[in-house]
Amino acid sequence: MAQLSSIMDTNAFRPDAPGTAADERTLAMTRRRAELLGPAYRLFYSHPVHLVRGEGSHVWDADGRRYLDVYNNVVSLGHCHPAVVEAVHRQMQVLNTHTRYLHEAILRYAEDLLVTMPTPSEGQRVGHVMFQCTGSESNDLAIRVARAATGHQGVIVTTEAYHGATDLTAQVSPALGSGVVIGDFVRLVAAPDPYREGEGAAARFVADVVAAAADLDAAGLGVAALLVDSIFSSDGVQPGPAGALQGAVDAVHAAGGLFVADEVQPGFARTGEAFWGFARHTPDADVVTTGKPMGNGIPVAGMAARPDVLAAFAERFPYFNTFGGNPVSIAAAQAVLDTLRAEDLQGRALKLGGRLLEELRGLGARHEAVGDVRGAGLFVGLELVTDRATRTPDRALALRVVDELRERGVLTSVAGPGGNVLKLRPALTFAEADIDWLVGALDDTLTALRA
């Protein structure tokens, strides 16, 4: 039997599981969904939520009940942000077509996006961007570009990484479970875990990257890329101290490979300390991939690369993506970027994220089950353990907490190899009152489950 996916199955609805809280109306809808969409899809919670409306950090179900959304980083500006709604509506009334015609909007957006990239320690700055519809497509293209640039095939990723759902990206996504075969060109390394490894976490990670590169060389594959989500979201939210990834980036460069920064989750100001998650650690990304939050719910993604890196791929392969970078999606992306700057949402993420961490750590002082609270900006992980001394993951408690929070009107889920880390990714427009709601619900939940 295939191992369950750490990101798809840990908090998945199972209609036949004992203790399901779903009412008959909800069960009927889930059965209809399975009949029409097939059995591969997953739903959250033992009592699935039927959402019909959203605004800011809040969503409403079919019965009119309001929930606090602390998980959906797709809508980074919050649900139905007026700037995005207006931009998409305005462009849809004028033109929507593909990228084989000239269009000013895509050029303006590319200029605006590329100027956010940091200046590297040496060599060319990331200077070209190619557009797709999803982060999976972006990471797929990034691997192809890295292979063309280096002449190597191997890819190094973390043991719980998720980088996409195409055939190629699924092979570098162990978080999908053992039902998906990891490619023979892939080497897995454990993400840094300062909670368990202390100050040695970064050095151990570097050593593992060096060993993985050597193994790929020995296999005749060489190293094309170290592909990393710099906040290690699926690995349990491991932001680490700023600068912690520089050694691993240097190591992969020394081995002849590239550093591909998967910014689908930590990018677009979410970490607060920098516009891009990788820039907390290093300016030396060779390729940067983006996705979900780029269009606040409108499908648009991008792969940006240094010109010298992209050259070999461009010489061999023409590129075309019918819907990637279409005018409507670009209008949404431009509205997101404009709003991030106009409202200083990076500064807001840093400020509110700091307060959220402080409040959650205070919560940890009152509840023994809270082993660790960590994060950067508005991307926070709260780890639940059976024992603080042994730091043993408490998956069962984490799932009970997630379900109980749902009943208290707070939506989130879990991550990490132990399935015991609450992954908290609210909209960047999260409010002070939303923090109070979240922390209060967590406090009440942990108190109730301890009784």
In the predicted model, the low-confidence regions spanning at least 5 consecutive residues are none
The neighbouring-strand order within the major sheet is 4-10-9-8-7-5-6
Largest sheet: 7 strands, mixed
Q: Kindly state the percentage of residues in helix.
A: 25-40%
> Helix/strand/pairing class, anyone?
alpha/beta
The number of helical segments is: 13
- Which word captures the global form? globular
What string gives the helices and strands in order? HEEEHHEHEHEHHEHEEEHHHEEHEEEH
Oligomeric state of the chains present here: single chain
The CATH first-level class of the largest domain comes to Alpha Beta
Proportion in β-strands: 5-15%
Count of DSSP strands: 15
Rounded Rg: 21 Å
Architecture per CATH nomenclature, i.e. the level-2 architecture of the largest domain: 3-Layer(aba) Sandwich
Kindly report how far apart the N and C termini lie: 36 Å
CATH superfamily of the largest domain: Type I PLP-dependent aspartate aminotransferase-like (Major domain)
CATH fold-type name of the largest domain: Aspartate Aminotransferase, domain 2
The whole-number mean of residue pLDDT values reads 94
**Number of separate structural domains:** 2
List keywords for this structure.
globular; alpha/beta; pyridoxal phosphate; 2 domains; four-stranded mixed β-sheet; Aspartate Aminotransferase, domain 1; seven-stranded mixed β-sheet; Aspartate Aminotransferase, domain 2
